[in-house]
Amino acid sequence: MRYALYVDLNSINISFESFNLALQKIDGEIVYSKFYGFNQKRHSAFNSYIKENSSDIALTLQNRKKVKIDIRQVIDVCLSLSSNSLIDGFFLICSELDAIYLIKAIKNAGKKVIVGVYSKNSLCLEADEYIELERTMQVDTIPFTQIKCTSKEEKIVKNNIEKLIDNKNNFNEYKVASVKEIDKLLEKYFV
To answer: What is the pLDDT of residue 28?
Structure first.
């Protein structure tokens, strides 16, 4: 089967390692891919995949709430449905909110839908298949020398990252909120 891949990096916090593991579970080939909310600094691990596969990117929109589906993703999927008969199915990695109607539209067009999720949710019930995403972070490669902050703040950030590194094997047990909390700290202090 030939799949179109649409990933909303802004609505779902996914590492490249987790993304790559999900791709290995697909029975078929990705013939088209597009990433929404792409940020060069934050998503640099995706650069090689994007380059090698000639993936399209859509930069992060300002003033967009993190929990809503990117309307650009909906439009692009609909355009692919109407104009590309070479695509047999769609692999979506996006927020749970509002994506159910998109999945229904894809299925009504006779195409297969696979969703990437962290835990079983309403998208899984609508899709033909779901792939459970791994909660991984490649925190051991973060260059601490690039952190711009006071020594007290630096210590807090480093301690939180070190805790994640120490607990890397148990990372699936972390709540999403704690991952987002660390992510906010990293985003705030990176140059």
So the answer is: 93
| CA-derived radius of gyration, the chain | 17
For CA atoms 15, 172, 3, 26, the dihedral sign is positive
The string of pLDDT tens digits covering residues 77-127 is 988 888 888 899 999 998 777 688 889 999 999 999 999 988 888 888 899
Confidence at residue 83, expressed as pLDDT on a 0 to 100 scale: 86
Q: Can you give the pTM of this predicted structure?
A: 0.69
Nearest-angstrom CA–CA distance, 62 and 64: 6
For the residues of 47-59, what is the DSSP string, one character each?
HHHHHHTT-EEEE
CB 123 within 8 A of CB 95: no
- Token pair, residue 168, equals 């890397």
Query: CB within 8 A of 71, min separation 6: which ones?
Result: none
Distance in angstroms (rounded) separating the CA atoms of residues 7 and 17: 14
Where the chain has pLDDT below 50, the residues are 67, 138-147, 168-177, 191
- Contact between 42 and 14 under an 8 Å Cβ cutoff? The reply is no
- pLDDT score at 108: 93
How far apart (Å, rounded) are the C-alpha atoms in residues 116 and 133?
6
CA 93 from chain centre, in angstroms, equals: 6
Alpha helical stretches, state H, the chain: 16-24, 47-52, 71-83, 99-108, 122-126, 151-166, 176-189
Q: 42: left (phi > 0), else alpha (psi -120 to 50), else beta? A: alpha
